[in-house]
Each structure stands twice: as structure tokens, then as C-alpha cells.
Amino acid sequence: MSRPGAAEPVAGRERAVRLIVPTLAGIASLALALPFAVPAVADDIRGSEYWLEDYGITEAWKTTQGEGVTVAVIDSGVDGTHPDLAGAVIAGTDVSGAGDPDGQRGLGEVPGHGTLVSTLLAGRGHTADAEPGAGSTGGPDEADATVSPAPTSPADPLSAVGKGPDGIVGVAPKADLLAISVWIEGPGSGPNPAGIAVDEQVPRAVHWAVDNGADVINMSLGSTSTEWPESWDEAFLYAEENDVVIVAAAGNRAGGLTQVGAPATIPGVLAVAGLDRDGQASAEASSEGISIAVAAPSENLVGGLPGGLYADWSGTSGAAPLVSGVAALIRSRYPDLTAEEVVNRIVDTARDAGAPGFDTLYGYGVLDVAAAVNSDIEVPQESRLGSMADWIQLYRRGSAPPATPPAAPDPAPQPVLTAPAPPRAVEPEDTTVLPSAVVLGFGGLMLVVIVAGGTHVHRVRKRTQ
To answer: Under a CB-based contact definition with an 8 Å cutoff, are residues 164 and 150 in contact?
Structure first.
């Protein structure tokens, strides 16, 4: 079984708009995320990051924390004033024509999405003095407040890493971020007021990221189609030719994405599937397909929202930045490795799961960060995920007709799912902080909300044979 690269080209620009925009807009994928005020004990947030210990991230931190690596976040915009992102965003841009020049204002249907993603990837944490805690407005003045160092325990890697023991610490807390805002339309936001379509924004974003020093690009957005507009070809080839790792979310069944869609189907792109809290393929916060490379946590995640707030959320939009963070750790420790070799270290050290060998739920296996970063292994120079250059030669420029894509596997019988208990928001002390409304996610997300650890929801576990 091999990674796809044989999807037929999108025939014309108008078709690309119909296929790509609706899903990226969030019509086919829905996420819920309730913001909550920073708890009195902010360690509740740090302590909820189970993936740091369970997937070997704290072990990897003994050798690298992502120093010297730059990751571009192509998303809805990144709030660089969030306490956990202080100093993380070094540059940015807006490719939609509707945002701020630095890419740090939230746009479109899911304005807080890029901040959620970025805190998981490169959050720095903070000290208690930086929190816009209970009784505050949670505004930018407090988020930007100067803080004094807080004592940490060297014996506790969760408190010793980052700028203080509180808040979210990302997988690569010393990596730098580029914020690239795009407009993803939806029923709430409407179309891009600047009139620039998604099939134009995405290649502009990729080009800008490469030209401005990105070593890794994170794309927590997806489509219901395995195909992509021809306008994307050259940009993804440009990234490949300039030695940039691209990581993309696979999408979620809960949002209607039963199979992986572009850009996670593009050759060379590292597509990330989702796992539940027990490390099994998520029944709702993931999808399936032959382009999946590796699986990472996608349920019971926590991320930062603009204004110094936080939210519990789920989906492969959260799994992707965890893997992008791992790519940053590898590029920091092994600066001479090519992008292809970085990808191969991740997939070659993944722990096999599901059916023996490669499968359509886990790809090459479950993410093992300590092994990916610290193992003494040799990896092939040619990417296991294919080459955009080869694909273009065969399917855009070559004379040979496209090969027939492999038939999709018969779907396994789906369990009957019971509706989860409705989420309940903690009443904020100051109702001007943020309305207790849901945040829609465009990465094919399913959201299981837990507010301050008070409400539990039913989770469906799906084990593959």
C-alpha cells in the first residue's frame, strides 16, 4: 500500500472553488470550543497536557526545545499577545487582503483557531503574574504585562520548560513562529470581503512562508476533496525545492470528513490522523485515507484563545501542530537533515498500531517523539511520502494518463454513537471578557468540551483490527 499521488487534477478554477472553499469554510466540518477564564491554579492547564509525557516530548526536551527553527502557521491569524505566545511570533503577513499586515488579527469563520494551534505548537507558558485571571477583563493590556520569574522545580520538566510553570507549553517552546492569516469563509462570517479566493490565498501563504525563512509549515485546514486546485501545484513544489517540511491535518469524521482531503493528500505533505485519550484511532476526531503518515493526539486538547483565554478542544487541527512541533525539534537537533529526512525520522520511529504495517487509520504508526528526536538511526534520503515534482511531471505535464487511484477500503461497521452531554460554560466573573459562544473550527474538527475539568462527555473508542 503506498501513499497517493495519483488523484486526478482539478479541472479548472471554478471547480476548485466549489470543492475547496465550502469545506475550508467549515460547512463540512464543525468544532465547538468554549473559552474559559484562566483558573485560579493555572497548573490545571499545564497538568492537562497529557501528551507531553505520554508521547515522549518531555524526554525529547533533554536534547532540544526547537531552538533556531522557524515554523509558519497558515491559519486564521495568531494572537501574539497571548501570555503563552509572548515573543514567539517574529513576523507575519495577511494573504487574504482583509486582515492586518502582521497576520495577528483573527479572521473569518474561526478567528481564534490560529491561536489555539500556535499555543500547542510553540507555547512558552508564563508565570502567574501574567494571567488575566478571574475578575479581570482578559484584555491585551494584561496579556502584555511584564512578569517576574517564578520559581520552578528542575525535577519537574513540565514546570522547568518555558517562561514559567503556568499556561500552555508547546511541543517546541523555543521555536519561532510566522503568523500568516487567511480568510476561511463560513455561514457566520460570509465570503472574504477582499474578494480573494482560498485557492489564491493558500499558494500566496506557502510562498511567503518559504521566502521568509520557514523550516516547517503547519496547515490545520482541510477539504472534503482529495484533489486540489492546480494553482497550488507550484507553491507546494516551491516548498519542496526549498527544503521545507509541510504538515497538514487529516480532518474529522464528526465534521463529515470520512476520508482525508487536500492539502493532506498532496505528495510530500505529512498528513496527521487523530488519537483518543487512550492512544487509539479516534472515532470522531480523525479520518481515514492512504495519505495518512502518522497519528497523534486529537482529543481532550487544550489551547489558547485570543485575549489570554483558553479552551478545551479536539480534532486533527490540534494533532497537526503537535507533529509540526516534533519536526521543529528534529530540525533543531539535526540541522543538516533535509526536509525528507526529517519526515522519514518521524514516520520510521512511529509505533505500529492497528493492522500490521502501514494502514489507513494510523499511517505508519503512532507518534513517538523521544524516538523521533533521540534515536540513533539512519533514514533514507527520499521521502516516504512522495514527491510533488514527480507528481506534477506525471499528472500535470506528462503525457501518461493518470493512474487509477487505489480503491477506498470498505468502511468498517460504525458503532451507534450516543450524543454527548451538552457542554456547560463556567459563568465568567466579568461578562465583557468574551461571550460564552462556541468557536467554529475549519480543520475538520470534533470538539469535546470540558470546562475547567468539571464536565465529562461520553467518548467513543474505536479499535481497528
So the answer is: yes
Give, in order, the Cα–Cα distances in Å from 130 to each of 137, 164, 362.
13, 10, 39
Question: How many CA atoms lie less than 13 Å away from 391 in the CB half-sphere?
Answer: 25
Tens digit of each residue's pLDDT (9 = 90 or more) over 288-314: 999 999 999 999 999 999 999 999 999
Q: Which residues make Cβ contacts (< 8 Å) with residue 361, sequence separation at least 6?
A: 273, 281, 286, 288, 292, 295, 353, 354, 464
Looking at residue 394, the DSSP 8-state letter turns out to be I
Instruction: Find out whether 79 and 336 touch, Cβ atoms under 8 Å.
Output: no
Phi and psi at 240, nearest 5°, equal -60, -45
What tens digit of pLDDT does each residue of 68-96 get? 999 999 999 999 999 999 999 999 999 99
CA-CA distance, 226 to 209, in Å (whole number)? 23
Q: Which DSSP state fits 130?
A: G
Q: Letter for the amino acid at 370?
A: A
The grid cell for 349 is 520511529
439 has pLDDT over 60: no
Return the C-alpha cell found at 164: 514559567
Q: How far is CA 243 from CA 190, 216, 339, in A?
A: 36, 9, 5
- What predicted TM-score, i.e. pTM, was given to this entire model? 0.77
DSSP character at residue 320: H
Q: What is the DSSP letter of 224?
A: S
Q: Does residue 204 sit in helix, strand or coil?
A: helix
From the list 324, 428, 309, 432, the residue with the least C-alpha distance to 33 is 309
Element spanning 199, H or E: helix 198-211
Question: What average pLDDT does the structure give for the chain?
Answer: 77
Locate 92 and state its grid cell: 507575519
